[in-house]
User: Fold this.
Amino acid sequence: MSASRAGLEDVVAGTTAVSEVDGEHGGLSYRGYTIADVVGHLGFEGATHLLWWGRPPAQDPPARFVAGLAEKRALTVETARVVDALAPSTDPMDALRMGLSALAGFPYPPTEEQGMRVVAAAPSVLARFHRRRLGLEPIEPDPALGHVANFLYMLEGKRPDARRVYALESYCISVLDHGMNASTFALRVVLSTQADLLSAVSAAIGALKGPLHGGAPSKAVEMLDAIGTPENALPWIQAALARKERLMGFGHRAYKVEDPRAILLREIAGRTAPAARFELASTVEEVALAELRKAKPNERLFTNVEFYAGLVLEASGLPRDLFPSVFGVARTVGWSAHALEQAAHNRLIRPGVEYTGARGLSFPPEAPVRALP
Ligand code: ACO
Assistant:
């Protein structure tokens, strides 16, 4: 297999009209609208409406859709029991996977109604798990709040201020969907076997958990903490690269220029993160890009979505170990859109593989033969 095909790079594995990634020019659009335009004009529910139905809502927020999602937020007694049974040490991403798997009643093929149930329940599962692990009583959803504000409310028990909701909502919209990324591919493979949406979402969450995909935002802010001060950026990064470590929040399989989501989230971090934190991040980014250019002159490595995502999520006040699972909460929207697309034109996804093992071997004549007992 040629090196460029390892990891299926450049292999076109299907068609989609949901989102378009232009890696060469740093473009990302949802249903034809640039991501900056979507974040600039629509809230979470409006952007979800756009992704699912291919057009922006007539008014934002779309009142009927908001109400439809809100009425599906409450977990059933059985699902709540599954979440409550999880050990406090459970990784939040695993809690999200197990909680959503316990929703039940999702026959194949997937429907919009099923997608709405998954999207609506995801924050409820995570908030319930988070409060239970802290020994706190779960909070019932507030139907008067939008999807993102209600998520913060269910985590904390008080209505969040608009600035924090803005930060989290902007982050969520910027990661709703992203072409044939690893988790979406995993979802489509499972769905193509005509397994149900919950099984496919479970596979997608498994794929998202790895740091090479969705596990990086907390790692990027951990890196900032380890660096500590702008003056320490250069020696720290040089030492990390000398140890052949990867700098979290840099490089991307698709983007060979700057990730458009990084541009967007840098701007939002500049407005929502504390000034000193933003200054540290800016210095680390500048030094990291310069050192990556020297260390990997043949690679086109730029800032990816995860670097400033960490800062924006900090500004939204979320606990750090929830960052990767909040990515999952947002991405349920894109996964659902892809599930509907896959089921509408389904064919089993079953690629070939290049065999590289031995051929034509056989056992010697004197080898004992396995007899029928
Ligand atoms: N820091 C240091 N070196 C890097 C980085 C990085 N962040 N990213 C790539 N490289 C180097 C690799 O070491 C490799 O060099 P080598 O051949 O000398 O070993 C070369 O660039 C190519 O790397 P690949 O792993 O082949 O590139 P790939 O396209 O498979 O990787 C990936 C993309 C996984 C995102 C990678 O850039 C990475 O590990 N980044 C850090 C983790 C991260 O930020 N993850 C979030 C991704 S965004 C998202 O999925 C939502």
The CA atoms of residues 35 and 44 lie 13 Å apart. The beta strands are 19-22, 27-30, 33-34. The radius of gyration is 22 Å. The first helix runs from residue 35 to 41.
